Predict the structure.
Amino acid sequence: MPLSQDLDLILDTVERADPSFGTVARETKDRHIEAVRQSALQGKTDEFLLSAMSLLALAENGHTRLIPNEAIRVLPCRFVSCGGSVFLTRVAGKGSGLPPARLIAVNDVTVDVIEERMQPLLAGTRQRKRVTGPILMAWPAALSALGISTDAPTIRYRLQYAAGRVSDLQMPVTQTVPATELYPRNEHGLSEPDPGVRSFASVMEWPDNCRAVALPSFFDEERHALRRAVSDAADNIRAVPGCRLVLDVRGNTGGSFLEAMPLADAVTSSCQSGHCTVLMDRFTFSAAIVFVAILKYRLGNRLTLVGEEPGDGLRFFAEGGLIELPVTGALVRYSTALHDWESGSVDETTPPDIARHIVPVGNINTDRHWVQTPFDKSETTDIYRRFLDEMT
């Protein structure tokens, strides 16, 4: 089938369905559309996908993007962005025993140069781009587009291990695997691409009215499991008025913040005379950002935000859905509704059930910068305990 079928669906998103393109200049949009059309006519799949990524990134909206994972093959390396660095966290096959390492360069081109070159291909804020960008480090066609030669038989990754040792990892260009084996559609930042089944709300208890709740996701297609988990966690929190509480939304890429509202209500009630610390990172996105914003609005100085800037600001377009492109198999994520938790305003695209919750939060800047990298092997329970102790 011709790539033009995929092109038609992409153009419908850009030209009609997604309001986040409303501020993009017509000339700029036309220039990018023509580049996508030319790569479609030439039947160059990788080039088509890369040019489509650049077109969809014009909206500067993290929800609106082309997700190539289902359509491409990558070198068997999982790269993840943590703090100010990119880490190799896993090598499939023969190199599976390698420990985590910080990526320094690819074929002698440093990571910071590569990250700067990839900006036009990636959607959303710079922080969001650091979430979705590492897959490009393992995609040979993307490396070539970023000016890194792939003509040699191997790609050379320069790595630095925890003890400071630096060495090179040579990866044959032709030995690729489906990207979804190493890169999940919704990147969560964990070392393993598939963390397996995790509870939507895991509550840990300590003496002296201390609680920690891990909230890895608000996305549940059936919603029943999320609803039950949120209800159980909310009941637990309500049972300890004035508690010291840690909420962990690191790696939570969103879902339905409406389903999480009972927990927000319980935290608000319990922490009127207590304190809450929220851990977040650049993999905190969408509904998880909204959840944090609501808590900040309600709790004020009783809430401490720890971690790093999340994957989006407080004004973005969301809702919408996913389109599977029939020829390449890539996915187009499009948006239909404005969320403005910065000023608390709504427009005609904002659904009523969301609009009635929107409040002016201003920002959710961190009070304390903290990032756990793959070099840090601290147990999660120890991390929670440390932040709980700091509240005393």
In short: Residues 4-67 form one domain.
